[in-house]
Amino acid sequence: MAQELNALRDKIDVVDRQLLDLLAQRLVLVGEVGEVKSRHGLPIYAPDREASMLARRRVEAELLGVPGDLIEDVLRRVMRESYASEKDTGFKCINPALGKVVIIGGEGQLGRLFGHMFGLSGYRVETLEQGDWPRADDILAGAGLVMVAVPIDITCQVIDRLGKLPADCLLVDVTSVKSAPLEHMLAVHQGPVLGLHPMFGPDVASFAKQVIVCCQGRLPEQSQWLLDQMTIWGARLQQVEAKAHDEAMTLIQALRHFATFAYGWHLSQEEADLEQLLALSSPIYRLELAMVGRLFAQDPELYADIILSSPQNLAMVRRYFERFGEVLRLLEQGDRAGFIAAFRQVSSFFGPHADQFLKESRLLLAQANDRRHYG
């Protein structure tokens, strides 16, 4: 038996090495594709091409007896690495006549990320940090784009400190609140203004498929070049009014972060044995626990600022607290029928999204389980 297994495992090792060679060849080809895209100003993420390629590979795989889900999982992981590799070739500069790009807070994590992307696109990038304000006028002189990338709690204060910018300079902020920064930018600058909210952290390997929310302020035709540039980087742009953005963020960010914080706080006060929880957990609980732990591996000031950034956030948290109490009362009263009725009401609210989320979560759980190692 041992000889049989060893012989088969040796053959598998040979195939694995062939796979490695093929993956290496693919990455070389991806680099060449990136160079062509860079020269012609094509986005690194082409959704139609990706969808059609995956559909073809699924059909071809199934004809060979290979599950379609398997080849799609493999290819999606390979493509994620490919997108990260493509950016190393740089990007076409959409607006070569633009003056310099000045990023206020450019030494921060998000500021450095955008500075890097502008640099890869051929723009001249300078930063303005806290100690540079005495010479801010010199730094901002000749700027074609000024980006404010500072913490939420001081964004409006920093905007108010800006002196007279060149008339055609595009003024942009990248904070997670949009209404107030836009109002302040429109007040201090008479030229083009645009509000951006990158829906990702500074640790992303690529902008491919990453969402950037765009809230128009003034003269949208003069900010179109930046939208085109970010599209070339691979970002998915979502245009929305500032008020609607802020209302959505109370649920997407503020409430979600608060609920995660509260659960982590509860675990710490219960002195839960995390190692035991992990050892006993199903893939879904391990993934949920990972998302909770992820929050506490990051900057607490950032999350405090997000949650406290608007009275609407606190009002939403209060309503969540009250509804939590409503459900708790159902359980305290032993109202099984009431709980089931409430469950069905929520299920109806989610509608077809529930089945979609069930399918997506199964893939996530399978991937999370694949990474578990039992020594």
UniProtKB/TrEMBL annotation:
It comes from the Bacteria. Pfam families: CM_2 (PF01817), PDH_C (PF20463), PDH_N (PF02153). It is found in: Cytoplasm. Keywords: Amino-acid biosynthesis, Aromatic amino acid biosynthesis, Cytoplasm, Isomerase, NAD, Oxidoreductase, Tyrosine biosynthesis. Gene3D superfamilies: 6-phosphogluconate dehydrogenase C-terminal like domain (1.10.3660.10), Chorismate mutase (1.20.59.10), NAD(P)-binding Rossmann-like Domain (3.40.50.720). Residues 1-90 form the Chorismate mutase domain. One of its GO terms (biological process) is tyrosine biosynthetic process. One of its GO terms (molecular function) is prephenate dehydrogenase (NAD+) activity. The keyword Zinc-finger does not apply. Signal peptide: none annotated. Pathway: Metabolic intermediate biosynthesis; prephenate biosynthesis; prephenate from chorismate: step 1/1; Amino-acid biosynthesis; L-tyrosine biosynthesis; (4-hydroxyphenyl)pyruvate from prephenate (NAD(+) route): step 1/1. InterPro entries: 6-PGluconate_DH-like_C_sf (IPR008927), Chor_mut/prephenate_DH_T (IPR008244), Chorismate_II_sf (IPR036263), CM_dom_sf (IPR036979), CM_II_prokaryot (IPR002701), CM_T (IPR011277), NAD(P)-bd_dom_sf (IPR036291), PDH_C (IPR046825). Residues 99-361 form the Prephenate/arogenate dehydrogenase domain. GO terms for cellular component: cytoplasm. This is T-protein. It comes from Aeromonas molluscorum 848. The lineage of its organism: Bacteria, Pseudomonadati, Pseudomonadota, Gammaproteobacteria, Aeromonadales.
